Amino acid sequence: MGAGGIIVVLALPTEEDPVASRFYRSARAVSRPLVKLIWNHRVSGLENVPASGGFVIASNHLAYIDSFLIPVVIPRTVRFVAKDSLWEQKGPQGAVMRWFFDTVGAVPVDREELASGKGALQAALQILRDGDAFGIFPEGTRSKDGLLHPGKQGAAWLALESGCPVVPVGLKGTQHMLDAVPPERGTVSVRIGAPIRVEDVDPSASKGARRRLLNQRIMADIQALSGQRRAGERTARTGA
Questions:
Q1: pLDDT over threshold 80, residue 167
Q2: Domains in the chain, number
Q3: Which end of the chain is more exposed for a tag (fewer CB within 10 A), N or C?
Q4: Beta-carbon contacts of residue 221 (< 8 Å; ≥ 6 apart)
Q5: Is residue 14 a contact partner of residue 51, using CB atoms and an 8 Å limit?
Q6: Average pLDDT rounded to a whole number, residues 127-146
Q7: How many helices (H) does the chain have, and how many strands (E)?
Q8: For residues 74 and 57, is the Cβ–Cβ distance under 8 A?
């Protein structure tokens, strides 16, 4: 998926569109009780979401629907770019996802465009500087084996360049949300961790070292929240 694993905010206006903002709030107001009714998902840590100013949402990634669930749960507007394949999902769930992404102004981007990374990072940086929230999956793509894979450094780069905090998120069970109709309730959870401040990263270290240290902290917090095993841990045991 490219540098940073970006799935959020590309080619969106830097000034808030009041009409789009109303649509976003309305869509979330409709979606939130519906999602709660169907899946009875558990949410904790909402108090960790900054009330104002830009911040980076960094989450593990288990399913396509993660890009739908996060903005439904987070009380601040989260700007998203998503792979164009999300607009091609079939059935009623696909129709709901297309409606939601279109309503909130998400932009479909093909995989090749997304893979370049650099342009998306610059667009994301501007969004953060404008005081908005930006979501990113550091792993870069969905985990097909349920393990937490190594994170790319896009989230850390954005935080250090913008000075904005990173809010880690751990998702559980989202890969099973669409497995059954009606779905099994109570198996999905969203855990939101305490913001990670760039000031907490050793200021005497080089830029590259600070980026690596912050990335390690982000992935460690995501793991603690999601309860996943790391992909490398299984490989090490298998090879032992």
A1: yes
A2: 1
A3: C
A4: 168, 193, 196
A5: no
A6: 90
A7: 8, 8
A8: yes
* CA dist., res. 226 & res. 218, Å (int): 12
Question: Using one digit for the tens of pLDDT, what is the confidence trace for 34-84?
Answer: 888 888 889 999 999 999 999 999 999 999 889 889 988 999 988 766 667
Asked whether 143 and 151 are in contact (CB, 8 A), the reply is: no
- The two three-digit tokens of residue 39, written as one number: 């899946």
Number of neighbouring beta carbons within 10 Å of residue 110:
10
Q: What CATH number is associated with residue 62?
A: 3.40.1130.10
Give the domain extent around 111.
3-11+20-235
Q: Is residue 120 part of a domain?
A: yes
The number of residues in the chain equals: 240
> Do 148 and 223 contact (CB within 8 A), yes or no?
yes
Tokens of 58: 């960094």
Query: Two tokens at 46?
Result: 């909402």
Contacts of 57 (CB under 8 A, 6+ apart): 8, 70, 74, 78, 133, 134, 135, 136, 167, 169
Judge whether 71 lies within some domain.
yes
How is residue 161 written in tokens? 């360049």
Taken in order 212, 214, 219, 224, the sign of the CA dihedral is: positive
For 155-189, give the DSSP string. HHHHHHHH---EEEEEEESGGGTTSSSSPPTT--E
Residue 96 resides in a domain:
yes
Q: What is the pLDDT of residues 89-122, one digit of tens each?
A: 888 888 887 876 776 656 566 666 555 566 567 7
CB-based contact 42:126 (threshold 8 Å): no
Q: Kindly state the tokens that stand for 107.
A: 């932009």
Tokens coding 182: 């009606």
